[in-house]
Amino acid sequence: MIELGSTERVPEEAEEFRAVLRDYVRMYAFLSQVIPYYDTDLEQLYLFGKHLFNVLPRGADNTKFLDDQQVRDDYIRLARRRAYEMIHRDVA
After folding, report:
1. How is the chain split into domains, by residue range?
2. Which of 7, 21, 31, 77 is deepest in the core (most CB within 10 A)?
3. Measured CA angle at 8 (ends 7, 14), to 5 deg
4. Is the dihedral of CA 70, 46, 75, 91 positive or negative?
5. CA–CA dist 25, 29 (Å, integer)
6. Residue 74 near residue 25, CB atoms below 8 Å
7. Whole-angstrom Cα distance, residue 56 to residue 17?
8. Which DSSP category does 5 fall into?
């Protein structure tokens, strides 16, 4: 927990958060290639984390902005997965 008035720990904790988020996004991306996930909540968390990581500033002057095309591609992928799940739920 950050105490009010304490600013020297904020950059360290921000970098630690970025590192944990980066590790999660990389691990999920790798595992989703190997193991099929059917949980849309995990997919949504992954997509949110992936885009959040890209938007978070990396330092004082090094910021990266969100790519709209990538967001659209990921949305289409998620929508197709949901449609696939709905079709197979009705069959089962």
Report:
1. 10-91
2. 21
3. 85
4. positive
5. 6
6. no
7. 10
8. T
Helices (H) and strands (E) in the chain, counts: 3, 0
Average pLDDT of adjacent 10-residue blocks, the chain of 92 residues: 48 84 91 84 90 77 56 81 81 61
Place of tokens 């970025």: 18
Q: How far apart are CA 19 and CA 10, in angstroms?
A: 14
Q: Choose among 41, 52, 50: nearest CA to 78.
A: 41
Q: Indicate the residue type of 65.
A: F
Phi, psi of 55 (to 5 degrees): -90, -30
| Runs of H (alpha helix) within the chain | 10-34, 40-55, 68-91
Residue 36 has which token pair?
Answer: 């099929």
What's the token pair of residue 49?
A: 């984390």
